[in-house]
Amino acid sequence: MVNSAVAGVAESGARPRSTIGILRLPRAQRRALVSYLAALLVWQLGSTSGRWLGVELPLLGRIPAPSDVLGAWSHLIVDPGYWQSWLASSKRVAAGFTAAVLTGVPLGLIMALSPPVWDVVFPVFELLRPIPPLAWVPAAIIFWPTQELSIDAVIFIGAFFTLVLNAVSGARSIDPRLIQVARSMGASRANILTRLVLPAVLPSVVVGMEVSIGITWEVVVAAEMISGGGSSRGASSGGGLGFFIWNSYVGGSYPQIIVGMISIGIAGYLSSAALRVVAARLSRWNAPYGGRA
Amino acid sequence: MPEPSARTQLLRATLGNVPGLGDLSSDAVDSIVLAAEEGETEDGQLVYGGTEIVTHLYVVRAGRVRLERAGSAAERTRWAGSGETFGWHTLTGIRGERATSDGATTLLRIPERALLQALASAPLRREQLRASVGGRAGAIGARAKTSSEAQWFRSPAPYRRLLGYALFFGGWYLTVEAWALPHFDRLPGITEVVHEWLSKDPTFGLSVYTPEYYAHIGSSLRRVGIAFSLATALGVPVGLALGSSTTFREYVFPVFELLRPVPIPAWIPLAILVFSGAEAPIVFLTFLASFFATALNTFLGVRSIDPKYVLAARCLGASPWQVFRHIVVPGALPFVLTGLQISVGVAWFSIAAAEMCSGQLGLGYVINTSYTEVKFPTIVIGMLTLGILGFATSALVRLVGERLVVWRARELSMERP
Amino acid sequence: MTSGAIAWRPAGTQRAAAPVLPRSARADALPRRRGAIRIADAVKYYGTGESRVLAVDHCSLDIAAGEVFVVIGPSGCGKTTLLNALAGFHSLDAGSIHLDGELLCGPGREKAPIGADRIVVFQNGALFPWKTVLENVAFGPAMRGTIPRTELLERARRRLAEAGLQGYEESYPGETSSGVKRRVEIVRALMNDPAVLLLDEPFRALDALTKAMMHEALIASYLRTGSTVFFITHDIEEAVFLGSRVAIMTSRPCRPKKILSIDIPYPRGRETVTSRRFRELVAEAMAAVHEEALKAYALGEKEG
Questions:
Q1: Is residue A208 part of a domain?
Q2: Closest partner CB to C237 (pick from B1, B113, B407)
Q3: C78-97 pLDDT tens trace
Q4: Count of domains observed in chain A
């Protein structure tokens, strides 16, 4: 409707206003750049305040300086141990997340489409959902034979609940009238599933996946910190970026903490991007009837 | 209003018999009628052959059509008589169907585009949606409460709910204690936990009768309370500003989005480094998590306000500040409240992580130390307590929210279309 | 009945016939005459570059102050574009619009200012859900500070009562039926004494009975205030019932195809609908609309 297309929230214009290099960028990008630089400047000045001001600023003064962080990173890039941490964390994320998707999405669909299953499962689901995933760590360590599996299990729990809820919400967005019409014209159950239900559910599942992958990274980092370094159990398993950060703290190499934080941020961003690519692929062969247009 | 033409009436009646299309509003039906085409066929005439993929919905006005499908397990012939429908293969997934008219027939043909538009323009009432997807067309579930969650999920039937709990707790008991399955036998059993939780003199020192239990609860609760309040006080204004001011958004949002993806646990060592004492880092971490959630959801809330309200207000003469105060803030409120519920959840998540890594009081600390000190039942007590607190605080936020957003609650409880 | 489209000549040439204003005992008592609109050679494109679509093509309309001007045409033909340009929501690519002789938008002024002299009643209703009916109705003058508060609330209550809506003052819009909502929105608009009332298919989603009530309510309000009414609809009978003149637009690009003068005096009631003159006018309008509707449908127009 044209009325709703008339938005007061006009997006920034894309017209360049001058021919000088940087200023040729659209306004929004220019301002973002300014923000980053300003933030970086404040960080650098604040964290090194002890050195050039003589007096250390509260809070800011204790943060490792960007210059030191860069130095630390240049050493780490060539250190194979650093990349092994990446690999370890990524493997855990992949394992736990995939398991959650493969169990959570079908469960969500079944729950949404079958009232008896819903009635039995949902109360227990809601009972367990508020328990923070990390609270499961000790129980997982006790139960699972290896530490690796216990971390994967906790990651699974973290992602699982969100995926189920989003699958349910997606299933409920299907216009049931279309199902009625299709059924009355002799479409088989299988056809209804593949042609109506799955395409309608896909957008919600994708959203659920994007949210869960964020949660997954949070859980991975925490789990690695707790089981690999935080507790007094030996650091036998470890590896992973969470463990790396904790270790850097304990070992006193503070700039490495920041390197670790940024690395995790990048890793999280990369996994979200990968998810979006997969989602785009899946939506391409979909002819959605069920979801809201 | 004058009587609609006889043709229109007949068409409407025919469409009314199509399952699923019977309850459409008259406007929706009219739009379908406008798009419909009529045709007459002779005996034995082919309506469509086996190779086409039919995108029209066919309705038989008078006569009978034979539908044959080769290639399926049982070669099926079915018939569509007066008022019945066939076709629309893109919806049903049927392939290779052949339709021939049996005797002279009058058919209606409607392109799927018109149907989909008509359906999209006539949103269903919520109960119908719930009931139909559940497969019981026409059945109305339990009366919806006004909360936004109940709007989606009707209360499960009591017997089945009990069955669910029974299966879960029963399973817990059986696997851990009765059958003592490998691995499971290392876990604390349900009887152990319940016994410990409710005993006046707990073996491991923590039960509903010990003051330490409440000290830990109080500690966690206090931290969450402070962090959540700070996050709300800061996050809501920031979110509102992000949503209403392009300048603010273009300067601030990039840095915001740069920091947000870093998982909260990754901030723990830095927080410990920067903040002195034991309380401040934990509160800071919880605050950070809540802040991001609140600010982002508020921002999205402002974004989701239908622009027509802004336009209407400006038409009526409101200044930009008045628009902000009277349209943006109240309009975003429901989303802000959803954001606050998420924020509370995130706060508990973060505090569990923070307390497990450091700190001397609090439920996360309890869980961690119970593990290292081999007090397994206490672990479960800690987990369940966290769960209960999380649920309770979230419900509290939701209730307070519903009070504030009275108009939304009243709107949701209206059963009228 | 003419079979071909009437070619509309660019602005500056005489209109075919002078407008017939409603004549009735009450019409002479109309409060004031302002709100004369002159649309000259309006052109509007949607989209850019290759896929640009011409929505409005050299459209010119002359609307007299105080008349009910109804615009009708197949969906997606650009009628809403004209309304949006009048209200100031959109700009025009060429041409101009004048209100009472003053330039609203055109060369030198890209978009008309959004203001309380041209108030829009939106298709899906834009009553603020978080304000009560009374607060909604009082919103305009309250924001502009033109009337002191106690007097404002008094007046608002009175207008609501005149429209048959007493008892709803403290309800929220979400609790009322669509008929009530629509009437409240019209009262809200008219509280501000606008020069022009712009309505974009406001009664589209209502059922036939409610629609009939809305028509009578709108006419009653119009006769009380005398604002110019610019009304878009796709319902032919509604158009002929409400309008003093009905403009049938061509399918995209939008241009007036035929303008009918409805010479039935106000106030019009249920008996008008069965009168012979009404039926004749409806038939005339239908023929013109049907032609354009077929064209539009062949092009695969979406609701616009």
A1: yes
A2: B1
A3: 788 889 999 999 888 888 89
A4: 1
DSSP letter, residue C73: -
In a domain? residue A214: yes
Is the per-residue pLDDT at B413 higher than 70? no
Q: Encoding tokens for residue B365?
A: 């600390």
In a domain, A20, yes or no: no
Gap between the Cα atoms of B348 and B389, Å rounded: 9
Q: Tell me what ipTM this predicted complex has.
A: 0.82
| CATH number, domain with residue A167 | 1.10.3720.10
Lowest mean pLDDT among A6-10, B12-16, C205-209: A6-10
Sorted by where each starts, the structural domains of chain C and their CATH numbers stand as 5-117+196-303 (3.40.50.300), 132-193 (no CATH)
Cβ–Cβ contact A175 with B under 8 A = yes
Sign, CA dihedral A108-A109-A110-A114, equals: positive
**Cα–Cα distance for residue pair B413/C175, rounded to 1 Å:** 9
| Structural domain of A105 | 77-282
For residue range A79-103, what is the model confidence (pLDDT) as tens digits? 888 888 888 899 889 999 999 999 9
The string of pLDDT tens digits covering residues B59-114 is: 887 788 888 887 655 557 888 887 788 888 888 878 888 888 888 888 888 888 88
Three-state helix/strand/coil letters over B30-88: HHHHHHCEEEEECCCCEEECCCCCCCEEEEEEEEEEEEEECCCCCCEEEEECCCCEEEC
Q: How far is B47 from chain C (nearest CA, A)?
A: 22
Residue A184 lies in a domain: yes
Structure tokens at A155: 């990651």
Neighbours of chain B (3+ CB pairs under 8 A): A, C
The letter for the amino acid at B412 is: L
pTM above 0.80, yes or no: no
Neighboring chains of C (3 or more beta-carbon pairs < 8 A): A, B
Record: contact A6-C90, CB cut-off 8 A: yes
List residues of C whose CB lies inside 8 A of any B CB. Answer: 87, 89, 114-116, 118-120, 122, 124, 126, 128-131, 139-140, 143-144, 172, 174-175, 177, 188-189, 192, 204-205, 207-208, 211-212, 237, 273-274, 279, 282, 293, 297, 300, 302-303
